[in-house]
Amino acid sequence: MEYIKAFVVGGLICAAVQILMDQTKLMPGRIMVILVCLGSLLGALGIYEPFVEWAGAGASVPLIGFGNSLFKGVKEAVDKDGFIGLFKGGFTASAVGVSAALLFGYFASLLFKPKMKD
Amino acid sequence: MEKEKQVKEVLSAKNKTERDQKYNEYVKQVTPKHSCLKNTCNAFWTGGIICTIGQGLTYLYMSFGLDKENAVLYQIISLVFLSVLFTGLNLYPRIAKVAGAGSVVPITGFANSVAAPAIEYQKEGQVFGIGCKIFTIAGPVILYGIVSSWILGLIYYVLGLLGIV
Question: Number of CB pairs < 8 Å for A and B?
Fold first, then answer.
């Protein structure tokens, strides 16, 4: 059941973004920025976290989930440390995803040679 | 032949508006037509599969005795690793060709956008090649993620001070 939820919810989010991409011809980079900002907005409105609880990876794997966890990190840090938390929370929450992408991306640039585009 | 004729028509158009109109018609005709429905279906099942794999990985790590929060973090690391590996092996662009948004929206799309330029621009050196280009897409994503969550966090903080939240 959890797998079906993850599949359907994740799939629907991707399908909706595909329609947006087809209609607007936005480049993937812009799409990613929009998704992350949308995620932190939905997180701030308190909508996305219950959704993640319900849909699991279907809601957390898309980049909207990344934006949501950014705001969640800021909120938790503000609750804990007050004002300085605003400057702490974002990077704390995104640390694992960003570090993993940078580290593996860097190692990949040492290991793999550029390929011709086909 | 048809195209050349159209190009000539565009070039020979008398005034600017007429030329623009003819040019737009020409562009519309030569732009490959995508089936919107097919793209959407492809994005649905590919994106769905990536999320399902994520769910499976989370359960796998939880079965190793990790709590849910840490299991999700390991799941993210695993998906990022797989995505970078597929990028290095030049498989991710092939998936992306079919998947469209299905390969952009999940965290794997972010990992791909980090690894791809790093590999592509390695010849330009460690600092200005890999170092700069690795942030081509990641930079904006991180910047606007931090900015938006900071602003919203500030609102949350102020509302907290006022006793509203």
Answer: 259
Domain boundaries, chain B: 1-33, 36-134, 135-165
Rounded-to-integer distance, Cα A106 and Cα B111, Å: 11
Strand, coil or helix: what is B15? coil
Q: Quick one: tokens of A71?
A: 């705001």
pLDDT along chain A (118 residues), means of 10: 95 96 92 97 96 95 96 96 95 95 96 78
Q: How many residues does chain A have?
A: 118
| ipTM score for this prediction | 0.93
- For residues B75 and A69, the answer to whether their CB atoms sit within 8 Å is no
Which of B36, B46, B138 lies at the smallest CB-CB distance from A22? B36
Question: Could you say which residues from 18 to 57 on chain A have a Cβ atom under 8 Å away from some Cβ of chain B?
Answer: 18-22, 28-29, 31-33, 35-37, 40-41, 43-44, 56-57
Suggest the residue from A7, A8, A13, A18 to mutate for an interface test with chain B (most B CBs closer than 10 A). A18
DSSP one-letter code for B32 = P
Q: Which residues pair with B106 in a beta bridge?
A: A62
Cα A4 → chain centroid: 21
**Residue A105 tokens, joined:** 């991306």
Q: How far is the C-alpha of B149 from the C-alpha of B139, rounded, in Å?
A: 15
Angle of CA points B95, B34, B48, to nearest 5°: 40
Helices (H), B13-35: 16-30
CB–CB contact A61 B149 (8 Å): no
pTM, 2 dp:
0.86
Cα separation values, B66 from A96, B12, B61, B69, B75, Å: 16, 70, 6, 8, 11
